[in-house]
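Example for tutorial group B:
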């Protein structure tokens, strides 16, 4: 899987968030999008996800690891992408099991992975029958991580993935990355090395202003 940005630019009104960005993201490699708060990291990640459009340039998705790969229509890219971000909500009236079953009707989970296994992986077994609205902020973040990491997609986008996690939660995050993301294309948007320290490459958003 490859995501390619060619002379890509995004602006709001007259302010360019990034411009003339040329970069390839390839499967099996993890990338960090870094920069100060408000620099446009999340905007770039949302553009990669297909949630927002570019103002100039183009973005392509290919199922192959090189230029001979088969192209994917932008409107179908969501089938290949899962995302975890602070601004994305979960259905808080549901329990963990209900929410994951609901999500699975839209996007399948990693083959051979059941909901009970996911619950154990993010250490939420003791809250199995509790509505998510009664979870702490850190527990809700674990739900978001589970939803993204266990979706059977080749591309995983993580925007400030350790938001609201304590030390144990951060350790769990790294364990999940190690266990489930070795063969995937992972892109982390963050200014905290603790969240992206495992990444192979960095894209500094400030270099594309």
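The residue assignment follows.
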């Amino acid at each position: 899987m490859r995501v390619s940005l060619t002379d890509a630019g995004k602006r709001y009104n007259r302010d360019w968030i990034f411009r003339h960005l040329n970069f390839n993201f390839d499967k099996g490699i993890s990338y960090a999008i870094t920069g100060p708060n408000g620099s446009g990291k999340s905007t770039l990640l949302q553009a990669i996800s297909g949630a927002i459009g570019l103002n100039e340039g183009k973005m392509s998705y290919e199922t192959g690891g090189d230029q001979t790969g088969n192209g994917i229509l932008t409107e179908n890219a969501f089938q290949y992408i899962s995302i975890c971000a602070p601004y994305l909500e979960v259905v808080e009236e549901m329990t963990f099991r209900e929410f994951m079953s609901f999500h699975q009707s839209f996007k399948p989970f990693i083959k051979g992975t059941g909901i009970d296994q996911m619950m154990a992986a993010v250490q939420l077994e003791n809250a199995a029958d509790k509505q998510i609205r009664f979870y702490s902020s850190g527990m809700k973040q674990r739900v978001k991580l589970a939803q993204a990491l266990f979706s059977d997609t080749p591309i995983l986008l993580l925007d400030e993935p350790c938001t609201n996690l304590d030390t144990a939660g951060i350790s769990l995050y790294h364990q999940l990355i190690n266990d489930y993301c070795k063969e995937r294309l992972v892109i982390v948007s963050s200014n905290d090395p603790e969240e992206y320290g495992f990444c192979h490459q960095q894209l500094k958003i400030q270099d594309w202003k």
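The chain has one domain: 2-208. Compare this with the pattern of hydrophobic and polar residues in the output above.
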